[in-house]
Amino acid sequence: MERYQTRYGTVVNVQSGVMRGVYGWMGGGLALTAFAAMYVASSPALLQAILGNRILLYALLFGELGLVVAVSAAINRMSTATASFLFLLYAALNGVTMSTIFVVYTSTSIASTFLVTAGMFGAMSLYGALTKSDLSSWGSFLFMGLIGVVIASLVNIFLHSPMISWVLSVCGVIVFTGLTAYDTQRIKSQGYTGPKGAILGALTLYLDFINMFLSLLRLFGDRR
């Protein structure tokens, strides 16, 4: 019995350490994104360079996508320093592209939506970390919802339908709220270990947070 308690305590300590690392990296990434977004938004020249040059904007967006794929698919073949740099580079680039929300929405609504998102994310991530229920059954449903949102979003680029945009935002909130709990439990239960495991887990939860935030902002943000 004593041996079991010692081993159990070790597992709990390792998991706690991993989750602290995950949340630490995620918080750092969000802080860097916020700084980059506000810095670019405060510079009319930089903001005009992004909004006035579609090629540059698309290059930034595809660059972000490439970084997510690279970190997710090849993190085991990277050094910790490379993985850290790519994660921070992604967070900074995402801040640059997200600076455009300051043109569309008021600063007050952006700040209030961020706080609401933080509350929702914190509650769902805590649920995912502490619940005894197995959330793995959510995975296929949430993945199908995510694919549906992505495909419909691409189609709506050409349709410009406000109704489709509203429905997609509602679906986005539902999907990414669920993914927050699901991904938290998966990160904790699958034993993401070491600094690189913490970075990969942070990237996963960072994406959940950002997408939940953008979905809520499209629904409730006050436009300029």
Q: Can I get a quick summary?
A:
By secondary structure, the chain is mostly helical. It contains nine helices and no strands.
Give a structural overview.
It is found in: Membrane. The protein has 224 residues and is an all-alpha fold. The N terminus is likely disordered. The radius of gyration is 19 Å and the shape is globular. The protein has one domain.
Structural class: mainly alpha
Give the count of structural domains. 1
Shape: globular
User: Biggest β-sheet: count, sense, barrel?
Assistant: none
User: Rg from C-alpha positions?
Assistant: 19 Å
* Sequence stretches where pLDDT stays below 50 over 5 or more residues: 1-14
- Order of helical and strand elements: HHHHHHHHH
- Helix count equals 9
Question: What's the number of extended β-strand segments?
Answer: 0
Residue-averaged pLDDT? 90
Helix content: over 70%
Strand content: under 5%
Note the main attributes of this structure.
224 residues, mainly alpha, disordered N terminus, 0% strand, 9 helices
Set out the fold topology.
Elements: H1 2-41, H2 44-51, H3 54-74, H4 80-98, H5 101-104, H6 107-130, H7 138-159, H8 162-189, H9 194-220
Helix pairs in contact: 1-4, 1-9, 3-4, 4-9, 6-8, 6-9, 7-8, 8-9
